[in-house]
Design brief:
The structure holds 2 protein chains of 2 kinds.
Chain A lengths: L21 E6 L5 E6 L7 E7 L5 E8 L4 E6 L8 E9 L5 E2 L1 E6 L13 E8 L5 E8 L2 E10 L2 E9 L8 E6 L7 E8 L2 E7 L6 E12 L4 E4 L17 E5 L2 E9 L5 E7 L2
Parallel strand pairs in A: 1-8, 11-17
Antiparallel strand pairs in A: 1-2, 2-5, 3-4, 3-6, 4-5, 6-7, 6-10, 9-10, 11-12, 12-15, 13-14, 13-16, 14-15, 16-17, 16-20, 18-19, 19-20
Chain B lengths: L1 E8 L5 H13 L4 E9 L13 E7 L31 H13 L4 E4 L2 H10 L5 E6 L8 H10 L5 E4 L2 H10 L6 E4 L18 E5 L8 H14 L4 E5 L5 H10 L6 E5 L5 H4 L4 E4 L8 H8 L4 E4 L5 H4 L6 E4 L4 H12 L2 H14 L5 H17 L5 H17 L3 H16 L1
Parallel strand pairs in B: 1-2, 1-4, 2-3, 4-5, 5-6, 6-7, 8-9, 8-11, 9-10, 11-12, 12-13
The chains are: A mainly beta, B alpha/beta.
Chain lengths: 274, 420
């Protein structure tokens, strides 16, 4: 689903377009990106255009000479790039946009990010399985960042850091059943090293998929999805993998494991023993 | 010079393919270079090829390709050696196409890139071109049957290159290669197109296939010891492979899921090295050690097991990295902690790694090949001398059998005779 072929501009299939321009990206720690592509000397102004999938939104960034035969475009962190997948194209003068392919993605400044801003802007460039360049964007405020997870003794403990909100004494964490067939399960929030901690006994969760939320001001305040966004890894699911735990419950033996969703939000899957 | 490479499949992904492009792209600055790929299974090569390098294929097996479904693809090869690992992919058609190519090739120098192709080159090349066989794997990784085949054919080559001195010594002592110039030339590794690592990130990085020979189980166990002392450091292992589930289970068993991450394959790998501060290699065997050089070129000191064959020829222990005992979890952990706990030492070794790895730059490696090729061409290479040498060897081989001492004497005598 994440790597559907682009639907918007049609790709010209003539010989000239075979040489897909390769794009080098450099990320800064604030969430900004710069894009470098080879200047092929085509006349007219060139733009790097980002198209949001399943939408008519686009962001057009001017490409200007940067020396060494390179053209450069910048996407500062302040530019509004709503959450989603943005496919990157090159558009020269009024011509048809052509899909860009990924070159070197220098994302070292995204590793172990600890932003100071209240509003979290994350843009991670990556190569799709079709070999195209796409930017995954998240913009969240407030935000609850998941850190280390500890699994032990039929229990899951999650470390959470908050951005754009400060938990009050009423704050708690909440596990909600995605099918809404079971009532939400509350977990106490305690201050600790590297943020707040909350723990839930797997036995309290019925079979299903449970989403994790933070209620920083108690039940009357906002509900903030707990997610892992502040690093260089576009797709957490295959990398952040946690042990599956067997628990004895009133409904019989179950297996539970935390996982990251396609949007890198944190959830827990509870099911029958396989 | 006109230089023609012969490669299994220039359209795939792999160390030999990347190495061949790196070399060809550099040699093409001064020479007329072509890469002849036995197979073509996709439209464009994965790696960058300089537009000046001519690339063509002998057998087009793309969907809709001219040879897709050719009946002779199913008939077994007779020239390509049965004992070679890729025998199953070769056929009567590849035998014929290579015979046509090698029988008519217009080149000063032919370079074969794997044993089976070196055999074709030795047996089917017309008079004239110099024949240089490359061995990207090691002699002791070949089966006895393949070694026996190569022993009979390699003497007809003009030169044989290995990626390490250790392997060149093995060929020198275990094969009869009278008059064949034997030379170790490391694989070229270009400078990465990005700034080197700054050494501040608390990450150890490893990259390679998740295969038993890489011994990542040792690395994960060693990192358990690292965590006890330095829980602020973490490990990323890039690559895919059959050991993944086993490693996953080990990580879970040791409770290392917040410290050790299996990242999956990454291409290009350079930006991933640049995120780390130390690289780790825990293999029981490295025919060369390409990842060690890659990491060093990105400014990482490498902690590596001192396994055969490459690491000890790449890393200067205590200067630009650390060589530790093979198969020893504690030694690996100690090596990592030595660099983790001493920021100055780590930074010093990182700088040395950058400088010392410049010797693997494609320009330097290409120079060594140029010298070799130039010398061989000047001598007349595979002309009548080479043919005569081939028949001489066969006669002597029959007379002397495996008498190494006599064989060595004969080799130097022949060399003298040739230079005179």
């Amino acid at each position: 689903m994440m790597t559907l072929a682009p639907q918007q501009p049609t790709h010209r299939d003539d010989e000239e377009d075979r040489a897909i321009p390769r794009t080098d990206c450099v990320a800064d720690s604030a969430g900004g990106l710069t894009f470098d592509i080879a200047d092929r000397g085509e006349p007219g102004p060139a733009h790097l255009v980002l198209f949001l999938r399943d939408s008519d939104q686009r962001v057009s960034l001017p490409l200007t000479p940067a020396g060494d035969g390179r053209l450069r475009a910048a996407l500062p962190s302040g530019v509004d790039v709503p959450e989603g997948r943005w496919d990157a194209y090159l558009q020269v003068a009024g011509g048809e946009p052509s899909r860009l392919s990924p070159g070197l993605n220098d994302l070292r400044s995204l590793v172990d990010r600890a932003p100071t801003a209240d509003r979290i802007a994350v843009r991670i460039p990556y190569g799709t399985k079709h070999g195209n360049l796409t930017i995954r964007s998240w913009e969240r405020s407030p935000h609850a960042e998941a850190g280390a997870l500890h699994i032990g003794d039929g229990e899951l403990e999650v470390t959470v850091e908050t951005y754009g909100t400060e938990p009050t004494p009423d704050a708690y964490a909440e596990f909600t059943d995605r099918e809404e067939s079971a009532p939400a399960v509350r977990a106490e929030l305690t201050p600790g090293q590297g943020g707040f901690r909350c723990a839930v006994a797997y036995g309290a969760l019925r079979p299903g998929t449970w989403d994790l939320w933070l209620r920083p001001r108690g039940e009357n305040g906002p509900r903030v999805r707990i997610a892992r966004l502040l690093d260089d890894i576009v797709d957490k699911h295959p990398v952040f993998v946690y042990p599956r735990t067997r628990v004895e419950t009133d409904h019989g033996p179950l297996e539970a494991e935390p996982f990251y969703t396609a949007d890198n939000d944190l959830s827990v899957r509870v099911g029958a023993v396989s | 010079m006109h230089i023609s490479f012969l490669i299994h499949n220039a359209y795939g992904i792999g160390g030999t393919i990347r190495t061949t492009y790196n070399l060809a792209n550099t040699l093409t600055e001064q020479h007329d270079v072509e890469i002849v790929s036995v197979f073509r299974h996709r439209d464009e090569p994965v790696f960058d090829v300089d537009p000046k390098v001519r690339l063509r294929a002998l057998v087009d097996i793309r969907e809709g390709g001219a040879d897709n479904g050719h009946a002779d693809l199913e008939r077994p090869a007779k020239v390509f050696p049965r004992a070679e690992g890729r025998f199953g992919q070769y056929s009567a058609l590849t035998d014929r196409r290579m015979a046509e190519h090698l029988g008519a090739v217009d080149a000063d120098v032919l370079v074969g890139t794997r044993p089976g192709l070196n055999v074709h080159m030795a047996r089917q090349t017309r008079r004239g071109p110099v024949r240089v066989g490359q061995e990207h794997l090691t002699l002791d990784s070949h089966s006895p049957a393949l070694r026996a085949t190569l022993r009979g054919v390699y003497p007809r080559l003009d030169a044989l290159t290995t990626t390490t001195e250790a392997d060149a010594r093995a060929y020198g002592s275990k094969m009869r290669l009278p008059g064949v110039q034997l030379l170790a030339v490391p694989n070229p590794v270009p400078a990465p197109g990005l700034d080197p690592a700054d050494g501040t990130g608390k990450w150890v990085v490893a990259a390679g296939r998740l295969a038993p020979v890489k011994r990542y189980d040792l690395l994960v166990n060693a990192f358990d010891k690292v965590r006890e002392e330095r829980p602020d450091w973490r490990l990323r292992i890039y690559g895919g492979g059959k050991q993944k589930d086993k490693l996953r289970a080990l990580i879970d068993k040791l409770g290392l899921y917040n410290h050790v991450y299996l990242m999956g394959p990454a291409n290009p790998i350079e930006p991933e090295w640049a995120k780390g501060s130390i690289a780790a290699v825990t293999s029981s065997l490295e025919s060369f050690g390409m990842t060690i050089v890659e990491a060093m070129r990105c400014g990482l000191p490498v902690v590596s097991t001192d396994c055969p064959h490459g690491p000890g020829e790449i890393i200067e222990d205590g200067v630009d990295g650390r060589l530790v005992k093979v198969g020893d979890v504690k030694a690996i952990a100690d090596g990592l902690l030595e660099l983790i706990n001493d920021d100055d030492k780590r930074q010093r070794m990182a700088h040395a790694a950058l400088t010392d790895s410049e010797r693997f730059d494609p320009s330097r490696i290409a120079e060594r090949y140029e010298t070799l090729f130039g010398d061989l061409v000047a001598r007349g290479g595979g002309s009548s001398v080479g043919r005569m040498r081939g028949s001489l060897h066969r006669t002597r081989g029959a007379l002397l059998g495996g008498a190494y001492a006599v064989r060595d004497a004969g080799r130097s005598a022949l060399k003298k005779g040739r230079t005179a």
